Amino acid sequence: MGISNVYLARTDDAYRGTCEALDALGFSVSGRRVYIKPNLTGGRPSSDGLTTDTGIVRAVLERLHDCPRITIGESCSDTVKAFDRLGYRELAEEFPNVILEDIREAEVVWKPIPRPYHTREMPFSAGVFNHDYIINIAKMKAHSLAGVTLCLKNIFGFIPTRRQKLMYHPFIRKAILDMNQVVKSNFCIVDGVWGNEFDEVQSFPKYTGAVIAGEDILAVDMIAAEIMGVNLNSIDTYRMAFELWGDPEINLSGASLDEVKTVYRQGCRFTTRLRYIKETAASLVYRAFNRH
Fold first, then answer.
1. SS3 of 46, please?
2. Any idea what the CATH number is for the domain that residue 114 is in?
3. pTM > 0.90: yes or no
4. How far is CA 256 from CA 7, 11, 209, 220, in A?
5. Domain region containing 148
6. CA–CA gap between residue 31 and residue 48 (Å, rounded)
7. pLDDT digits (tens, 9 = 90+) for 105-144
8. What is the 3-state secondary structure (H, E, C) of 3-32?
């Protein structure tokens, strides 16, 4: 494995920080069919710590040239409302060839997993496979089941329906390894201007002032996790990911880690724990009667 270039922008403005990072990395895409996957949890504003800042998507769109197809897709509790509230309708009108996809309504295709960790096949949005360049834009968040919500976890949004998500969510630490073998990110960004600590469902915003970008998904997640004060070797997903794809050697440019490093509290509220108990029970029932 070669050296992975990652850029860290220290910023309080997600758009400006992303422009800085993309230009420093020489990011420009021409003539490709591009799929952009942000994290739009419930359509909340980015300052709540749960949702990718729309300015990051704008900065990316400004650097896509003559692309015949650009899709922005997500599957959250109400994707349509999120697109409306967060300005994605306006982006689709402003930039040529941009379409919005509610992955919950997408055609489903089952794909075999090359090296299964949790299951031999999984359902995905069929549309993503009609694109040849995937831009993964995650939010910097703690997660009681997955440890962290960064770029590896963001691919979970390509599972279309709520029921299908429930089949895999309780087993997410292994399931996202399977998903990332099928849907491979070409460029990754983590929005850490405002992150979320302690509980992934409730808003516990934490100002961090960082945007991280690079081509290597593990390298970008490693820098983001170090900023959060999280040791990825303590998380099963990443230990297995390093065995699967290798432990990247990182060339970090831009700001230093010390300028933005902090500590994200881990944990979740009682109501979230109760929700996950119910999800696990529902998952076992669905898996007993459905393809998985």
1. helix
2. 3.40.50
3. yes
4. 10, 12, 12, 14
5. 3-289
6. 35
7. 999 999 999 999 999 999 999 999 999 999 999 999 999 8
8. EEEEEEEECCCHHHHHHHHHHHCCCCEECC
